[in-house]
Amino acid sequence: MERNDAPEASWREAYAARLDADVRTFIEETEACYPPDAADLTVERQRTVYDAMARTFAVGRPVGIVTNDTFVDAGSHTVPVRVYDREDTTPQACVVFYHGGGFVVGGLESHDDVCAEICAATRCRVVSVDYRLSPEHVHPAAFDDALDAYDWVGRTSGLPLVLCGDSAGGNLAAAVAHAKRGSSREPAGQVLIYPSLGFEMEGRSYREHANAPMLTMDDLLFYREIRSGNGDRSGEPTFAPLADGNLAGLPPTFVASAEFDPLASDGERYCQGIREAGGRAIWFEDVGLVHGHLRARHRTVRAGESFARVIAAIGAFAAGEWPYAKPV
């Protein structure tokens, strides 16, 4: 699709004064690896630069984390997964994690340190899922893999299950939560990090932050079209969980959105809808942060505080608790 290159070039004029110096530095370091016009590159090149960017920000695994790479049998193919455990403890629950990357880039390596830190901080086993990517595999391939991996974890583990994912991975985690509600292995909770949840791209943040640093409306339209194969998926909750007309019966939900992110309204609408349907959900808008700030958790105070809230929510859901005194 044709893209407008002007917004990416001008984000500093619109946002520089609203961002902390360390967040601005993080954005600039990210763009040095993964340029704002990356969606104009070939898919192969996008994956190469994304993986290089992930390596730039990687901090390694905490001491005492062991991993096992294996495969989920999905019938016609296998889904690679990486299992993380702490050497010194028996896990209290299992986190099924889906990585971000617009359904086009990312994999087990791009979020390896994130998963290892979740495992270390929560006393949970973590299973990271390497679902199939677009454009080679359009919807519902990624969702099918996400669900198959969740079911595999459910069959092979007697532990409570917590869903987690960032960006595109947050979309998949939510879609799996919708698919598994009411089942014998429904999740104990879901923790979504700046997730993409809608199809129509409606809400305040889409208007106010259409040209935000790190993610723009142009990017979102590109990812939507490439994942859908240019088809109309507007009514499918497996593609856009906000399309589900029934948000009742979903697990306890924590959503962390970034203030300067067009996707922020998705998290707000989703949590509001769950609460209106009688469920428990909290939406936390991380002030002064941008999409993708998970990689800045060791570089900026704000991102580190955001990650600490994510860890706390995962730990609470794993223990069958609510992370706050009351639903907010």
From TrEMBL:
<dbReference type="InterPro" id="IPR050300">
    <property type="entry name" value="GDXG_lipolytic_enzyme"/>
</dbReference>
<keyword id="KW-0378">Hydrolase</keyword>
<dbReference type="GO" id="GO:0016787">
    <property type="term" value="F:hydrolase activity"/>
</dbReference>
<dbReference type="Pfam" id="PF07859">
    <property type="entry name" value="Abhydrolase_3"/>
</dbReference>
<protein>
    <submittedName>
        <fullName>Alpha/beta hydrolase</fullName>
    </submittedName>
</protein>
<dbReference type="InterPro" id="IPR013094">
    <property type="entry name" value="AB_hydrolase_3"/>
</dbReference>
<dbReference type="InterPro" id="IPR029058">
    <property type="entry name" value="AB_hydrolase_fold"/>
</dbReference>
<feature type="domain" description="Alpha/beta hydrolase fold-3">
    <location>
        <begin position="95"/>
        <end position="293"/>
    </location>
</feature>
